[in-house]
Amino acid sequence: MGLCFPCPGEAEPPSPDPEEKRAKLAEAAERRQREAASRGILDVQSVEGKRKKKEKLEKQIATSGPPPEDGLRWTVS
Questions:
Q1: What's the CA gap between 68 and 46, in Å, rounded?
Q2: b/e for 32-68, b at 16 or more Cβ within 10 A?
Q3: Is 60 helix (H, G, I), strand (E, B) or coil?
Q4: Quick one: DSSP state of residue 11?
Q5: pTM of the entire structure?
Q6: Cα(72)–Cα(29) distance, rounded to whole angstroms?
Q7: In this structure, what DSSP letter does residue 66 have?
Q8: How are the residues of the chain apportioned to helix, strand and coil, as percentages rounded to the nearest 5?
Q9: Nearest to 34 by CA among 23, 20, 21, 47
Q10: How far from the centroid of its chain's Cα atoms is residue 1's Cα?
Q11: Which residues of 10-28 are buried (b: 16+ CB within 10 A; e: fewer)?
Q12: Is the pLDDT of residue 24 over 90?
């Protein structure tokens, strides 16, 4: 039960191209990030839709100018 080393007559397997290796690592990191973001969520599309709607509403509020002097704002949804 020792370590397994390649036989002296065998050549080492070719190492992957650094650019290819970097691309695979980036892809794996993105996949892990997507999986972590959706962990525990049953309906991912619904959550994404709600998030986009919230961002759109926040952007609309930010571009609508300063709030009225009384500080209240009416919105219809």
A1: 33
A2: eeeeeeeeeeeeeeeeeeeeeeeeeeeeeeeeeeeee
A3: helix
A4: P
A5: 0.40
A6: 44
A7: S
A8: 50, 0, 50
A9: 47
A10: 42
A11: eeeeeeeeeeeeeeeeeee
A12: yes
